[in-house]
Amino acid sequence: MERRTEKEPRNTKECVSLMIICYRRCSRYQFECKGSGECIAIYNACDGIPQCSDASDEGPELGCPALCK
Fold first, then answer.
1. Record's GO cellular component, any one (predicted)?
2. 47 assigned to some structural domain
């Protein structure tokens, strides 16, 4: 039976998730756009005005109100 320490990832997906957390491009005061990886000020996320080219800063998964089109 293989033994792991608690901090070792269990699978590739978990490893990738850990790498994203460890190697973030944006500071803790910034939001990282999903598609481009660009960083915007955290207060611009969910403000009703998409700053990310893919509008991921206004996405429903963040709990933002729906944008009127």
1. endomembrane system
2. yes
**Which residues does residue 40 pair with via DSSP β-bridges, in sequence order?**
31
Q: Rounded distance, CA 46 to CA 50, Å?
A: 8
Distances from the Cα of 61 to the Cα of 22, 23, 55, angstroms: 22, 22, 12
Q: pLDDT (tens digit, 9 = 90+) per residue, 1-24? A: 555 455 555 554 554 445 555 566
Query: Where is average pLDDT lowest: 14-18, 29-33, 65-69?
Result: 14-18
User: DSSP of 12-51, one letter per residue?
Assistant: HHHHHHHHHHHT-SS-TTEEE-TTT--EEEGGGTTSSS--
- Domain of residue 58: give its range: 30-62
